[in-house]
């Protein structure tokens, strides 16, 4: 049984991510927790005007959000009618990251799946700020689903590494799970850039070759500023279905978000992005 957390703000992006999760795990026994996190700023003066004197702002917010989640669950059940899937609704009045971490701990969540803003046309946005913060600050692996992305199988997965940290099979268990569930091909892109040496190449390769015997290994040395352009080109040319990365204090993702403001970052990834966080990174 897998426990999947589905944060939602009822936007088109988040609903699409929920639909993706239903399709991706259609043959897996799952507990799905749909979470909406409310904040006081979302309550506007018009709401106060129609609120009864005996009702608190908190109660009104929670009640409306609970009804919205229940409606989503009803629509999912009507469309999929999957006995393997069980649904739970949670509405919280808290900071988003704190809420997700608390819910994940209480319910032993295995994976967070959430939508992203995506990037198209003249837009320069890869992820919404909420998704970025969840990737950086939450303890649980995060699968970010771009807007309008539909699940069509998982034939090829790309995992990137620069070998600055030693990996464990526990940290890579979602790669192994997807590889087993969909018999997907795993491409491992070993990257060394001009500013960083590799420390754990041998140890990590032993793990990969022991647990991912059919994986395809590619080795490249590139300039730091070209990392994501190279990865994006690889994704397109090799028809990759999911991009995965383990975040460490030396990782590409960590450097990306530190150097490039997300709002102006032009790397347009159009496939699901799995981010696995090392626990020691989380304060």
Total helical segments: 9
For CATH, the homologous superfamily of the largest domain is named as HUPs
Q: Can you summarize the main beta sheet?
A: 10 strands, mixed
Protein structure class: alpha/beta
Indicate the CATH topology of the largest domain: Rossmann fold
Helix percent band: 25-40%
The top level CATH class name of the largest domain? Alpha Beta
Share of residues in strands: 15-25%
Which spans have pLDDT < 50 for at least 5 consecutive residues? Answer: 43-54, 118-125, 259-266
Number of strands: 10
Strand order of the largest sheet: 3-2-1-4-5-10-9-6-7-8
Gross geometry: globular
* Second CATH tier, the architecture of the largest domain: 3-Layer(aba) Sandwich
Q: Compute the CA-based radius of gyration.
A: 20 Å
Distance between the termini: 29 Å
Briefly, what is this?
The protein is α/β, with parallel strands linked by helices and 283 residues long. The protein is built from nine helices and ten strands.
Could you describe the 3D structure shown?
- The chain has a 10-stranded mixed sheet, with helices on both faces.
- It is globular.
- α1 links the parallel β1 and β2.
- The protein has helices at residues 12-24, 45-50, 57-80, 96-106, 129-137, 173-182, 201-211, 227-237, 252-259, and strands at 2-7, 30-38, 85-93, 111-115, 142-145, 156-161, 185-193, 216-222, 242-247, 273-277.
- Mean pLDDT is 78; it is low at 43-54, 118-125 and 259-266.
- With 283 residues, it is α/β, with parallel strands linked by helices.
- The chain has 2 domains: 1-115, HUPs (Rossmann fold, 3-Layer(aba) Sandwich); 154-267 and 277-283, Rossmann fold.
């Amino acid at each position: 049984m897998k426990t999947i957390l589905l944060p939602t703000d009822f936007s088109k992006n988040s609903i699409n991510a929920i639909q993706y999760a239903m399709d991706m795990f259609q043959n897996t026994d799952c507990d799905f927790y749909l979470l909406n996190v409310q904040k006081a700023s979302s309550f506007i003066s018009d709401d106060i005007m129609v609120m009864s004197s005996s009702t608190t702002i908190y109660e009104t917010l929670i009640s409306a959000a609970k009804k919205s989640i229940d409606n989503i669950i009803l629509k999912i059940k009507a469309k999929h009618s999957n006995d393997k899937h069980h649904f739970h609704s949670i509405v919280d009045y808290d900071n988003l990251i704190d809420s997700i971490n608390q819910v994940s701990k209480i319910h032993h969540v295995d994976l967070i799946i959430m939508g992203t803003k995506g990037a198209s046309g003249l837009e320069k946005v890869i992820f919404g700020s909420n998704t970025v913060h969840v990737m950086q600050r939450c303890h649980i692996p995060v699968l970010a689903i771009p807007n309008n992305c539909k699940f069509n199988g998982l034939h090829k997965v790309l995992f990137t590494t620069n070998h600055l940290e030693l990996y464990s099979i526990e940290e890579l268990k979602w790669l192994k799970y997807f590889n087993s569930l969909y018999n997907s091909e795993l491409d491992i892109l070993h990257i060394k850039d001009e500013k960083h040496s590799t420390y754990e190449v041998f140890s990590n390769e032993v793990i990969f070759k022991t647990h991912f015997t059919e994986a395809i290994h590619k080795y490249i040395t590139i300039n730091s500023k070209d990392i994501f352009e190279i990865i994006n080109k690889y994704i397109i040319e090799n028809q990759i279905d999911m991009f995965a990365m383990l975040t460490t204090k030396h990782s590409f993702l960590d450097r990306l978000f530190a150097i490039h403001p997300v709002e102006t970052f032009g790397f347009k990834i159009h496939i699901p992005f799995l981010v696995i966080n090392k626990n020691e990174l989380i304060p």
